[in-house]
Amino acid sequence: MFNRILIANRGEIALRIIRAAKSLGIETVCVYSTADKDGPWLEHADKTVCIGPGPSPQSYLRIDRIIAAAEVTNADAIHPGYGFLSENAHFAEVCRDCKIAFIGPSPEAMALLGDKVSCKRMAKQAGTPIFPGTEGAIEDIEEAVKVAHDIGFPVIVKASAGGGGRGMRIARDEEQLRAGIEAARQEAAAAFGNGAVYVEKFLEHARHFEVQTLGDQHGNAVHLFERDCSSQRRHQKLVEEATAPGVDPKKREAVCTSAAELIRRAKYSGAATVEFLMDRHQNFYMLEVNTRVQVEHPVTEMITGIDIVAETIKVTAGEKLSVKQEDVKQNGHAIEVRVNAEDPDRNFMPQAGLVETFVAPGGPGVRWDSHVRPGYRIPPNYDSMIGKLIVHGKDRETAIERMKVALDEFKIGPIKTTIPLHRRIMDNDDFVNATHDIHFVERWLKKG
Ligand code: ADP
Predict the structure, then answer these.
(1) 3-class state of residue 211 by DSSP
(2) How far apart (Å, rounded) are the C-alpha atoms in residues 362 and 364?
(3) Is the beta carbon of 287 within 6 A of some atom in ligand 1?
């Protein structure tokens, strides 16, 4: 097992990784930027190293400084968390070259599943359901036009190297498709240095369904069931739950199994999430694979009792997965809301500055994963998420009721947060009845 893990991240996920490492008797090193010098999570690390100024390109994204910090502190592994360098295959490769374990997949498995075209090809072989569309990246526009007519409009043009919603264009007819391919190619080339794009069917009404998987270096792979993350705004998830309500058990079992098969074939070690859209008839179409631990992993931990972050550390150290598929059991239902420092009344404007009042909720089945405490000053440089409130109950109704009570207990000020929006979502009929889709929050906010 590792002696000391360097955490190449900040905030709540840095704290989450510290907790997992401590539970395994491993020391931690946190790197931080000057904007995070008073970050409360740093107090819990065994060592800390400043790696540069606030803007992440000068600190949390600096591979050279992170590797140097690992070397001077004698860290034998690096956990990238989510965001920043977590899906950067080059970083994983540099770690390997420097003989520091990267807690995540091999650079090869990451590149294979991180590229949407190669991922889709492998998914097809694994029997994971994919969107109908072009076989690979578009070489000939006429061929793409023909495919679009065959599958029927609307279609969506997407970047092979895509991420963060960039390089995507919806096309409702042939003219839009031709223009969309050009525009998406340029956007993708500028954003990712790779202009490859492909075309797939566009779903108008869909739910977001994603399968949590874990793999080890011995050829084992399991799924830990699914999450529904259909409450979104601008493609950003707001609320996530495990498991997805109202899905046919046979279809669910098939899609979860196919996701585990995909990562097994990719020789994947660590945590991966296979994301799907589900249409009204409960047909599934793979969107992409996230090759890292996700923000919403706690809901899966709550219903399975498996510490996903600890598993990623253990499998990277060469251990076998601690569970076999038949040992993975679902207990109840869990819901997470992302508490963002944003003002829902002012177009979700990010809020930086001092947190004066801070009282987190408690009680049965309530978990609060956050680095925030009274007196903490939120820096303006990073993501606005300041914590995740997770509740667990024997069924979905109990979880929703617990979430309402917990949200009502929460006191944070003077900064504004997304708590009032979450409270409204818990009362929304579409959410409660699971008749929602990925656009329901936006439609509803527009109505006022
Ligand atoms: P990114 O990696 O840029 O986040 P994704 O492939 O995950 O891209 O897609 C982002 C979002 O775009 C999805 O969550 C969904 O809302 C929408 N989207 C992507 N592909 C489709 C599709 N074929 N049909 C409908 N919506 C889609």
Answers:
(1) strand
(2) 7
(3) yes
* 131 within ligand 1 shell (Cβ under 6 A): yes
In angstroms, what CA-CA distances link 192 with 159, 186, 407?
9, 10, 39
Q: Show which residues are catalytic.
A: 292
Place of tokens 């970083």: 91
Q: What would the mean pLDDT of 343-349 be, rounded to a whole number? A: 93
Q: How far apart are CA 427 and CA 424, in angstroms?
A: 5
In short, whether 235's Cβ falls inside 6 Å of ligand 1 is yes
Tell how far the Cα of 191 is from the centroid of ligand 1, in angstroms.
17
Contacts with 402 (C-beta within 8 Å, 6 or more apart), sequence order: 363, 364, 365, 366, 391, 392, 393
Q: Is 156 in the pocket of ligand 1 (CB under 6 A)?
A: yes
Question: By alpha-carbon position, which residue is closest to atom 2 of ligand 1?
Answer: 163
Confidence bin at 136 (pLDDT 50/70/90):
confident
Q: What mean pLDDT is predicted for residues 53-69?
A: 98
Regarding pTM above 0.70, the answer is yes
**pLDDT surpassing 80 at residue 164:** no
Q: Using 50, 70 and 90 to split pLDDT, how confident is the model at 165?
A: confident
The mean per-residue pLDDT over the stretch 219-239 comes to: 96
Q: Given pLDDT bands bounded at 50, 70 and 90, which one contains residue 24? A: very high
Ligand 1 centre distance from Cα of residue 311 (Å): 29
Q: How confident is the model at residue 135 (pLDDT cuts 50, 70, 90)?
A: confident
Average pLDDT over residues 354-364: 96
The radius of gyration of the chain's CA atoms, rounded to the nearest angstrom, is 21
* Domains defined along the chain, listed by start: 4-103 (3.40.50.20), 130-201 (3.30.1490.20), 207-447 (3.30.470.20)
Residue 78: predicted pLDDT: 98
The pLDDT of residue 157 is above 90: yes
Ligand 1: atom nearest CA of 438 is 16
For the CA of 208, the closest atom of ligand 1 is: 14
Q: Which residues contact 417 (CB under 8 A, 6 or more apart)?
A: 339, 340, 341, 342, 351, 386
36 lines ligand 1 (CB under 6 A): no
* Residues whose CB falls within 8 Å of the CB of residue 49, separated by 6 or more in sequence, listed in order: 29, 30, 31, 32, 69, 72, 73
